[in-house]
Design the sequence.
């Protein structure tokens, strides 16, 4: 019984080691698996991972419309006070007052890219994009207003 | 045909014709020393680059690719940097031993080159106890490592050196038994005899499964003896910063680094000599045409090809397996490798006595 355990120990050990070597041997012989990006050289054809988070943006469609209702869920979710939403009241054609955003202020220099604001947003108004070339000469340039000038909320988003 | 054998023969004849035997011998010694040092320098550069490239490919990276085409001058640039750096000696270190240790390690590696047959009739010193000499001298390197660890006056260095001592002393046993299997089959300790006995086939193929087991044991044991991952407890970066050479810098560090790679080359060369036929071409039974074509490849190419194949296997180990703990390391040797190699040696002895090998 002891001998049987001993031999199966050795067999299983060798088998699992060979399994590992097969994997690394596969990587060694298949250069297509290489994931290194030679960054400044291939700046035009750079391929980043899908999960890479670089910056928060607010997508606008062709009519310069976004889907942000100004509910400030992202502002409350942010642990660092990165987001500041300044609201205003639009007057709808029916004469009703409607809350809307005046400025969505995003301070990239304070952002840890934790993705909490994206998950908090009920209307998918903001998203993460894989931009990473954030260097600027003046720190104030990192404070951005995400909604474009003259943009307004898309119809039907409450 | 131009071969290493004819070059050495012409040189020797010319020297002995020109000078008196004593002076000719001295000149020959100087030439051998120069060749050894050149081999060391070249091997150091090539193997470090190879290791980095292999590591990169296995880890799906590109590896060094900026200095020179494909990064081939990377290690030369690194060496230049190391030469420029200050070889610092810590204040509280034992200065004499501290500075001596890298040279001991290096010298042991150099001594081991003597009995290796690099090509047909191209060997520095064909002593009749070549295999014994190798196993005796290779265990000396532990003295250099212990010296470095002790003299550094640093807890990491000391721990690393102690681990290295335990490791080399234990794994020498199974490496020795693996070597003995071939000695039993050949009946000689002389390297040239061992190579000559493999003319009609390498021992790995001739000796059935026991020799294959011995080969695997040898590769495992020498990986441990050269302090390489997965047995690199002596320098375990995450636990002991760099183990026994933590305090070394500049060229003294480079000597340790170089000695590590030279040791890999030497153990692989010995493995190739014992199990894969050294400089012998691959011959298969009675396929005369095939054997003839194989004979056209120079013997030095065969030797280097086999050695570098084994080096690649050891590098493959390093970048695949995780590091062992000290207790696991000693368990592996004393509970697995040693009993298996003892039993295996018995089996090989039976095969040799009964003449069951080819």
Sequence:
């Amino acid at each position: 019984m002891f001998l049987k355990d001993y031999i199966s120990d050795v067999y299983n050990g060798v088998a699992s080691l060979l399994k590992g070597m097969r994997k690394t041997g596969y990587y060694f012989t298949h250069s297509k698996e290489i994931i290194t990006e030679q960054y400044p050289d291939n700046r035009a054809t750079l391929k980043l991972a899908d999960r890479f988070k670089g910056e928060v943006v607010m997508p606008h469609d062709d009519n310069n419309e976004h889907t942000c209702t100004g509910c400030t869920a992202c502002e409350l979710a942010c642990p660092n006070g990165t987001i500041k939403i300044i609201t205003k009241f639009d007057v709808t054609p029916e004469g009703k007052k409607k809350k809307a955003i005046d400025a969505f202020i995003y301070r990239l220099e304070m952002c840890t890219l934790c993705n909490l604001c994206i998950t908090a947003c009920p209307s998918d108004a903001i998203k993460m994009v894989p931009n990473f070339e954030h260097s600027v000469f003046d720190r104030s340039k990192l404070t951005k207003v995400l909604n474009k000038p003259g943009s307004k909320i898309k119809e039907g988003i409450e | 045909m131009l071969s290493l054998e004819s070059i050495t023969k012409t040189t020797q004849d010319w020297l002995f014709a020109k000078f008196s035997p004593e002076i000719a011998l001295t000149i020959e010694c100087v030439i051998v020393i120069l060749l050894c040092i050149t081999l060391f320098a070249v091997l150091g550069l090539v193997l470090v680059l190879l290791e980095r490239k292999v590591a990169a490919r296995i880890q799906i990276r590109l590896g060094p690719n900026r200095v020179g085409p494909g990064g081939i001058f990377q290690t030369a640039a690194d060496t230049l940097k190391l030469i420029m750096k200050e070889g610092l000696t810590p204040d509280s270190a034992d200065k004499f031993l501290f500075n001596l240790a890298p040279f001991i390690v290096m010298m042991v590696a150099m001594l081991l080159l003597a009995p290796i047959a690099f090509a047909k009739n191209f060997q520095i010193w064909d002593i009749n106890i070549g295999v014994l000499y190798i196993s005796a001298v290779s265990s000396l390197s532990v003295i250099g490592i212990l010296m470095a660890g002790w003299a550094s006056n640093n807890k990491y260095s000391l721990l690393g050196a102690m681990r290295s001592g335990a490791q080399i002393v234990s794994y020498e046993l199974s490496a020795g038994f693996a070597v003995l299997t071939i000695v039993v089959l050949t009946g000689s300790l002389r390297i040239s005899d061992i190579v000559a006995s493999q003319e009609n086939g390498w021992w790995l193929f001739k000796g059935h499964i026991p020799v294959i087991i011995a080969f695997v044991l040898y590769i495992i044991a020498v990986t441990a003896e050269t302090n390489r991952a997965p047995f690199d407890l002596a320098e375990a970066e995450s636990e002991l910063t760099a183990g026994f050479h933590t305090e070394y810098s500049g060229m003294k560090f480079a000597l340790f680094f170089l000695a590590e790679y030279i040791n890999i080359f030497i153990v692989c060369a010995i493995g190739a000599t014992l199990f894969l036929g050294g400089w012998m071409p691959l011959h298969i039974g009675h396929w005369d045409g095939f054997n003839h074509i194989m004979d056209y490849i120079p013997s030095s190419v065969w030797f280097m090809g086999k050695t570098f194949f084994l080096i690649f296997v050891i590098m493959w180990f390093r970048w695949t397996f995780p590091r062992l703990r000290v207790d696991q390391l000693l368990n592996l040797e004393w509970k697995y490798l040693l009993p298996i190699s003892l039993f295996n040696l018995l089996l090989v002895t039976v095969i040799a006595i009964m003449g069951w090998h080819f």
The two ends of chain B are 32 Å apart (CA to CA). Chain B touches chain A through 15 residues (CB under 8 Å). Chain B has 15 helices and two strands. The mean pLDDT of chain B is 82.
